[in-house]
Amino acid sequence: MDETRGADGTAEAPETRPKGTRRRGAALVGAIHAAAVEETAARGLEGATMEGIARRAGTAKTSLYRRWEAPEDIVLEALHAAYPMEEPTPAADDLRGDLVRALRLMRDSFDTRPKYAQALMAVLVASWARPDLHERLYREVFDPRGERFTKRALLHYADKGVVDRERVTDVVADIGEAMVFKHMLDTMQPPDDAYLDMIVDQAILPAVGIDPRTLS
After folding, report:
1. Which of 40, 135, 146, 211 is the most core-located residue (most Cβ within 10 A)?
2. pLDDT, average across residues 67-82
3. Average of per-residue pLDDT across 33-61
4. Distances in Å between the alpha carbon of 167 and those of 127, 138, 154, 171, 207?
5. Where is this region: Disordered (predicted)?
6. How confident is the model at residue 1 (pLDDT cuts 50, 70, 90)?
């Protein structure tokens, strides 16, 4: 029996799928995406293989090569497909709420999906030594899904005339994500709702010229 080893060199149980279930189309692609995330979380991007992804997905390796050339291609597509994207209120009548919800989406999406978070971090770390991968990660994953958490909401409200568009700079758009990551580095825990509220009230809203006390 083939043996798969993780990034730390320890043996992993081979992934199997019950026989008799033939998947096609979206169902098969979804299974392959999930397998690519699991493979990358366990072995890192450099250790991920087409064989490992196929084994975890319970499909033939030839199914992968019909659509993708390399594990990296599957992993980036899988990260894009599952990357959370904020959806601000269409009427643009709850700026504070939309900003808070964007930060909660960021926290909860990664906190409740550890394998996805591990795979994303593995790709991000690998990209630091590979400018081509770094460019692909942003072009294919982050940018199409809104670039940064809270930026989509801020631009939406700027388009509606609620926020001054000139105040929505890259620095301001970075505030929410940066403070969430800083909190996690300092405490090794995701921020609670009260802390996310403070990020919005004490940092993001003032940065765009809005006093949170004036919001209903």
Report:
1. 40
2. 96
3. 96
4. 30, 23, 9, 10, 7
5. 1-24
6. very low
Domain boundaries, the chain: 4-71, 83-215
Q: How far apart are CA 48 and CA 122, in angstroms?
A: 11
Q: Is the pLDDT of residue 134 over 80?
A: yes
Rounded to whole angstroms, the Cα distance separating 72 from 75 reads 5
Instruction: Point out which residues pair with 11 in neighbouring strands.
Output: 5
**135 three-state secondary structure:** helix
Is the Cβ–Cβ distance between 154 and 172 less than 8 Å? yes
Q: For residue 75, give the nearest of 83, 63, 86 by alpha carbon.
A: 83
Which class would CATH give 83-215?
A: mainly alpha
In this predicted model, what pLDDT tens digit does every residue of 4-21 receive, in sequence order?
Answer: 455 445 445 444 444 445
The matching CATH number, chosen from 3.40.20.10, 3.40.50.20, 3.40.190.10, 1.10.10.60, for 4-71 is 1.10.10.60
* Band of residue 22 on the pLDDT scale cut at 50, 70, 90: low
d(CA 120, CA 84): 12
Rounded mean pLDDT of 20-46?
Answer: 89
- ∠ at Cα 74 (78, 40), nearest 5°? 75
